[in-house]
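Weekly puzzle thread! Below is a chain. First person to post its structure in token form gets bragging rights.
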Amino acid sequence: MELMNLPLLSLLIALPLAGAMLLVTLPGTIIGPILTRWLALVFATGELLLAVLLLWSFDSSSHQMQFLESHTWISALNIHYTLGVDGFSILFIFLTALVGWVCVVASWRAIQHRVRQFMASLLVMQALMLGVFCALDLFLFYIFWEAMLIPMYLIIGVWGGDNRLYATLKFFLYTLAGSIFFLIGVIVLYLAGGNSFDIQYLAQQNYSLELQRWIFVAFFFGFAVKVPMFPFHTWLPDAHVEAPTAGSIILAGVLLKMGAYGFIRFSLPILPDASQFFAPVIATLSVIAIIYGGFLALAQDDLKKLVAYSSISHMGFVTLGLFTFNSQGIKGAILQMFNHGIVTSALFLMVGLIYERTHSRSIADYGGLMKVLPVYTVFFAIFVLASMALPGTNSFIGELFVLAGAFSSMPVFGGLAIIGAALSAIYLLSMYKRVALGPLNNPKLKTFNDINLREFSAIAALLIFVFWIGLHPLPFLALMDASVNELLRQIAPQTHAALTQSVLAAPSLTDFRGG
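Winning reply:
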């Protein structure tokens, strides 16, 4: 049987849920912490292999939804269980599976109490995030969108730091407020679209500019909180600081992509006129986030806070690129979403590894780390350079495309965004100098061991994509090429031919397979 006829997407969602159910239902006398970790790793590995199979089988030459599944769910409201994948979602499905695997490995020693519940929460979180990227029914999307907050709430609130309750409550209130606006937009769009939740059908309808504006604003609040865009960003540093390492990794690696994905899946194709109307506002907020986030990161002494504020700055490039309405900007934004998931996850992983040894996140407590942990500091340096978009690393390609798109359609905003790129080099290099170079400030650091094999495996899984995309980005751009062209046709069909000119020609998927 052909893979296209198999329910791969349902299996992708069901596998981690089955793993979570197994972990929480087996008696504690049978499954201890060690077996729990290994079972979670088995399910996470199976999930990653399924995602690789899906990626390998994806036809990048088509913008149509692939691996479609559709079943009637609530017929009275015309709600269906509909799943599918296109060039916008395929990369993030793989990213979610990869980050989930890294989270399990990173939590091997970091989590010592309620291990079964923690691993189950991770697996449930992974399944629900995958549901967001696969859902083609707006109601189903909203269910996944809201449900994924529950395990994230538990991960921070139960296994977080001393101020975890404050951070969890703040995270919950911000996301709840955004979700209320999003729900209002969903209901209005359902009624305006002929009582349908079918995302593909809704994208084919024509709505008045006034209606589009109202729905866009409702969606904006829901998506902006998730990104998070300025000025809805204040929940993020607290959540990152208090979350355990795996919580920070999954929050930065995948959860922050949900808001930008919402813009791609709903705002741009369904509300094209309103998207262009509000583009200057989005661009302004994006540039503020890029520059303001950079200055905030520059002022931090806490390693986690510095990486968290850098996320605000880097995600500003994503939202800026999405609203350039040209091929370079949108491709750069999507690629940068994936790149940010890789690099920032890696930075939080590196912070988590050193925190396990020293129980300190203060930059002032370090210095001269290269003298005692040389392997760790070399990997840390690579991810720092990738985060500041050094040529040859993955972030360089994404930022280059975003800036090219911005200069093409809104040169003033493109020029201002460069300030943020310069700031990232300043705060990242300054941080690395204080942590890794110079005299050894803390003699206790001499007693700690360097990277072990388990930690290296998690680092290597992310490191591969830093150089793969940095040195050979064409296969990744090819995956989204057809979908981006179709999106541009929907947004501005009269200028589609001009807008779809890319800096690099998109190859076929045979390049990705090495054929």
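Puzzle host: Confirmed. Bonus trivia for everyone else. Residues 279-473 form one domain.
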